[in-house]
Amino acid sequence: MLLPRWFLEAILLLISALAFTNAAFIGVNIGTDLTNMPSPSDIVSLLKSHQITHVRLYDANSHMLKALSNTTIQVTVGVTNQEILKIGRFPSSAASWVNKNVAAYVPSTNITAIAVGSEVLTESPHVAPILASALNNIHKALVATNLNFQVKVSTPMSMDVMPKPFPPSTSTFSPSWNTTLSAVKQIVDPNTLLHYDSMFDAMVDAAYYSMEALNFSKIPVVVTETGWPSSGGSDETAATVGNAETFNSNLIKRVGGGGGGGGSEALNGTTLFCVAKVDADDDKLENGLNWACGQGRANCGPIQPGQSCYLPNDIKSHASFAYNDYYQKMKGVGGTCDFDGTAITTPRDPSYRTCAYTGSPNANGTGGNFPPALGPASQVGGNANAVFVSIYHLPFLATLALTLLLVL
């Protein structure tokens, strides 16, 4: 597939308009199985010049990973479908993959997530039975290299796993995948009377309702691919440059506008806070606290001596404040409330006396109040203000790919 330089520049120009949107981000998917592809250094220069903050690599291309070093761009690196069988069967293979493709580049390259496969259930169904094992082995390898706080593990799913995404409130995953998933006209949902102004919102809500049906109610969603048909064949008369520009421009405006689909907005009424578990090990809490205040970039000023959240001066209280500050700021881009099993979410506001936790209505000068960027802020629903526009291929909107960010 040819990828003219002007095409990449055009996509980046569209994206750059909202690169600084507070509650959203626009990212770029990068595949390297191309002819006439710009050099990695040229691609990174374009990303930087248009202030792109997130990229997803379809594979662990060493040249791209090196080129992305010292840029602060958040990188999701991909395990190919062909690699999953070996990684799922042999923990040593997962360890080798993480050491070679992640640990070797961190911290110079800001790798924040690993996408294990791409649309595995529909594109490589023979791999599906071992997908959970591959995810688990990759996570264990991250733990072994002390990267599990920084790097999250995920697997992108196609919308094809939801055979009937409309109306969204009745959407469920295909029963054939339940076991695996468990280990533009105005549209009205007749069951909830929610109005959808775009198919994009309806399909995102369908994903949340499908997850709810399997009790996956706390997993954020990132839309990893959406766009115009890539082939532009003679039978696709609507696949014109003008229509593609209209679609991408309006999508970016939609993402930057805030809010989610009708269902996510209606269901999103309770803020979840992240706090230390009562029975958590103190040594693990200390490790989690140090990471949150360091690499996690949590605002730990309020828990310093003499500050508003210093007392009570104990590890659980300090860890809870730091965990929550990190979680409120980062949950929209894949940050989770786990910290090596020492943290848990709660709808109860943990603020007390003069100490207001980030996300609390009373937060005013301590941690601060940071609205979620995407995903559920309550047990169900959320918004999807994060989109990766693919420069590798622009698939049909009908096969919108969603990433379920697994809390591993």
- Number of domains in the coordinates? 2
Oligomer: single chain
Helix-strand pattern, N to C?
HEHEHEHHEHHEHEEHEHHEHHEEEEE
Largest sheet: 8 strands, mixed
Mean pLDDT: 71
* Main sheet: strand order: 8-14-5-4-3-2-1-13
* Helical percentage: 25-40%
Total helix count?
Answer: 13
Spans where pLDDT lies below 50 across 5 or more residues: 1-23, 184-196, 258-269, 365-408
What's the alpha carbon Rg, rounded to whole Å?
Answer: 21 Å
Give the CATH architecture of the largest domain: Alpha-Beta Barrel
**The CATH topology of the largest domain:** TIM Barrel
Structural class: alpha/beta
Instruction: Specify the CATH homologous superfamily of the largest domain.
Output: Glycosidases
Q: Which term fits the overall shape?
A: globular
- Beta-strand percent range: 5-15%
Distance between the termini: 36 Å
Number of strands: 14
The CATH class of the largest domain is identified as Alpha Beta
Short description:
This is glucan endo-1,3-beta-D-glucosidase. The chain contains 13 helices and 14 strands.
Task: Give an overview in words.
- Its EC number is 3.2.1.39.
- It is a lipid-anchor; GPI-anchor.
- Pfam families: Glyco_hydro_17 (PF00332), X8 (PF07983).
- One of its GO terms (molecular function) is glucan endo-1,3-beta-D-glucosidase activity.
- The chain folds into 2 domains: 5-266 and 380-405, Alpha-Beta Barrel (TIM Barrel), CATH 3.20.20.80; 273-372, Methane Monooxygenase Hydroxylase, Chain G, domain 1 (Up-down Bundle), CATH 1.20.58.
- Helix content is 34%, strand content 15%.
- It contains 13 helices and 14 strands.
